[in-house]
Amino acid sequence: MRTYRFKEKYGSLINELIQDLEEQTNSKYIMGPDALCLLELLCDKMKLAPGMRVLDMGCGTGFTSIILAKEYGVTVFANDLWFSATDNYKRFLKAGVQDLVVPIQAEAHSLPYASEFFDAAISIDAYHYFGTDECYFNNHYARLVKQGGQFGIVSPALTREFTGGLPEGLVPLWEPDMYTWHSADWWRMMWQKTNLVDVTCSEDIPNGKALWRATADFELHDADTENYLTLMLMTAVKR
Ligand SMILES: C[S@@+](CC[C@H](N)C(=O)[O-])C[C@H]1O[C@@H](n2cnc3c(N)ncnc32)[C@H](O)[C@@H]1O
């Protein structure tokens, strides 16, 4: 397994923020696939530079927004639905990025941003919650990024579509919202056919299953004996 520089550089800050969060909510922070690793893999495929405006869509607790600001000097709009802007702002203050990261609580279908406002829009472990609707990209998301700007997502995915129904081993553990997981080819087609972007990369993350299983969904992965589960990464440039 490769080592991840964002984890080495920012791991202790993020652990401190997780500890605060657990104390405040009196509950364990539930982690999906490690967002720091996914962010690094995505950023390595994108070109981010100081002064750019970046949308971090579905940022959750805002850890990825903090790293984007610290690592690249970009201005980040940290947009989430479930986590409040005020709680995220407290984290941004603590991390010292309050001048670069703007906390916003907004639903994906009513985003309060001007068209072509962003140089880039990224989404870590979130886009599949709202982006599988064929109308979503062209009606809501594509307009946010300027011509020549970049899109990037990483999501739980399938190595191939379930052509014969759900694999038997997965049935007892399957949750209804997992139907939003799709293959990298499925995602490429989803965006490419809008003719609004050129998809520059759409692929399974190498060792995606192991990276995902390292922090989450252990039973599901163990039941996935046919290796359907993986993580996918897609980038595109606005035409
Ligand atoms: C699994 S969490 C990932 C959070 C963060 N990106 C990370 O990797 O730690 C998915 C996030 O997507 C956001 N989300 C889901 N549906 C959404 C919607 N319809 N509009 C905006 N955000 C949404 C949720 O608020 C949630 O924080």
Q: What features would you describe in this structure?
A:
By secondary structure, this protein is of the alpha/beta class. The chain has a single domain (5-238), classed as Vaccinia Virus protein VP39 (Rossmann fold, 3-Layer(aba) Sandwich). It is built from eight helices and eight strands. It has helices at 5-25, 35-43, 63-72, 85-95, 136-141, 184-192, 208-213, 218-223; strands at 53-57, 75-80, 101-105, 118-124, 145-158, 182-183, 197-204, 229-238. Strands 1, 2, 3, 4, 5, 6, 7 and 8 form an eight-stranded mixed beta sheet that branches. Helix 3 (63-72) links the parallel strand 1 and strand 2. Helix 1 packs antiparallel against helix 2 (35-43). It is globular and about 50 Å long. It starts with a helix and ends with a strand. S-adenosylmethionine binds next to loops.
Radius of gyration: 17 Å
- Total number of beta strands: 8
Summed up, the domain count is 1
Broad CATH class: Alpha Beta
Tally of alpha and pi helices: 8
Overall CATH architecture: 3-Layer(aba) Sandwich
Largest sheet: 8 strands, mixed
Secondary structure layout:
Blueprint: H1 5-25, H2 35-43, E1 53-57, H3 63-72, E2 75-80, H4 85-95, E3 101-105, E4 118-124, H5 136-141, E5 145-158, E6 182-183, H6 184-192, E7 197-204, H7 208-213, H8 218-223, E8 229-238
Parallel strand pairs: 1-2, 1-4, 2-3, 4-5, 5-6
Antiparallel strand pairs: 5-8, 7-8
Helix pairs in contact: 1-2
Bound molecules: S-adenosylmethionine (SAM).
